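[job 4417] fold queue: 2 targets
>>> target A
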Amino acid sequence: MSKKWSLTLTILVLMSLGGWFWWREAPVAVTVVAPTRGPAVEAIYATGTVEPTVMLPIASRAAGNLIERLVDEGDQVSKGQTLARLDDADLANTVQEFDARARLARLNLQRMQELAQRKVVATVDLDQARAELEAAEAVLRRAQAQRGFLTLSAPADGLILRRDGEVGQFIPAGQAVFYLSCCAPLRVTADVDEEDIPRVRVGQTVVLHADALPDQVFEGEVSQITPKGDPVARTFRVRIRLPDPDGLQIGMTVDANLIVTERQDALLVPSTALQKGALWLVADGKLRRQPVRTGVAGALRTEILDGLPMDAQIVAMPSEDLRDGATVRIRPPDTASQP
């Protein structure tokens, strides 16, 4: 019995060694790809909002009830155009009162001038009449200006972006009734993470996409970087000039890619082929681990700067158990997902 068990054990050991040897030396099925040439772009991603370069609030300098509104949101207006009026009845009466006083002072000055020519009154009386007229006219101008504050006019040509006020509503002094976009094209304001801001510079090219316009790509340029960041959000505000904002509207959200590096004829491999800074190559039916120096890394493609010949066969998705010198069997790409 002992001899029989010894023989059985020997056979089992030999079978195990044979299986291990077969597993070690059996060809490994891999899918290979070739490197390609194409653009390599390194970009900083940020989310931004389309906004006017200049947005002016239009408010009354005096309080009153809104009695007339002549424009609404989305209207194009011209400089000097009347937009709305607040109730100015009280100031209208005040203007009439001061206008009457000014007319009386003007007539009194004329009489004093006639009397002074006939030497009937002293020069001091003439000077006093002239001062009274000047004071009355100054008070009248102030009342007219205060009345004018109740009429809201466009300070420039532009577009009414927002209207806050209904007819009959009381409007406090200084409260904006309209917001006007004017004087400059649209821009994008984006928040860039603080770790990326050292790589952002004025004049940098920006590629923009808007979900509302999925078939369009917009090109912009960094025009301003705010010197103070937000310590809570840990971001810096970046302004992006839009030379041609065709189709974009104020308030739209856009994805902004700030181009850091761009090379048109880069050597590219699938990002899945990289494993700890190296690629697995197939040559003469054998595997070889090839360290490489990478450049721009993307989700799908990675740039190879050094260490890879153009005619190399690269394992597309290497597993962790690959080893140098192993025999391989190349399988077609369409069967890569099969076991």
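>>> target B
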Amino acid sequence: MRLLRSLRGDGTRKAVLLALAAVAMWSTAASAFKLSLRYQSPYMLLQLSSLISLAVLGAMGRLGGRWNLPLSPVRLGEAAVRGALNPFLYYLVLLEAYDRLPAQVAMVINYLWPVTLVLLSIPLLGQRILGRQIAAVLVSFGGVVVLAAGRGSGSLSADLGPVLLALASTVIWSMYWILNMRQEGDDTRKLMLNFLFGSIYLLAYGLVTGKIELPPMEGLLGSAYVGLFEMSLTYVVWLKALSLARDTAQVGNLIYLTPFLSLGVIALAVGERISPTTLVGLALVIGGVALQKAVGSSRGAEPGDSGDWPGPRGGVR
């Protein structure tokens, strides 16, 4: 309430309320992943969620008149590439990590993507990295080392495969975000086209691998929830919040609440005991991201600054 009173203008208040609503919905994503994976494979969760997202975004695009806009072959090709990265590759890797890791560990590692984005911006965007940025990277990756050692249970584990999967998902998402930054167009429409191509790729993948298998009702409900509140509706709400905000960084900073709220939801809904190593790892990962943001702000807007963030996973994560 004190934050809302300090803000002036109905538009900014509405932006904060919408951002908080998006944060609350994204805070349930990790638990929704883990609970839904009890009833179906990572592939089926992604396939069904992608179809739900496509339907929701398609309906929104229809209502907003976005389907009527001309689409060139170049834009269609760009959408095909983006759809291969997200949702196809990104979520296949991410959900596989969630299937094999405690939800709390996979969730925290997923928040490393702004740091991964900075690292990929060096070769792909030609940006220079400062000494303070290197320190920020080391702090965040230190958090991943803590998580890899504890794995959410406080005991050393030598099985780093699932951790590497979670790290790989941050690389895929960062590549997608860099590509998305360099292509113009309506964000909601681009996301809709991503899921159109992604759903086609997923269907082909399922037919080739024989992984298509209808889950029980619990799995269907979980897929519908993920499709709505992780991949589509929440992303649109977040974009609306950013568009209404006078200072996008002020609203964007609210995203730092998400992982802490998510841990609470994981404890209550999934039943995981939150390990001290998870809390230490989260503090290091978020601390490194915050340090990177502070350094980036001092030298001008850069990829990964909170004002540019679409959300924890971009809402398409």
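[job 4417] complete. Note on B: Confidence is low (pLDDT under 50) at residues 154-158, 304-311, 313-317.
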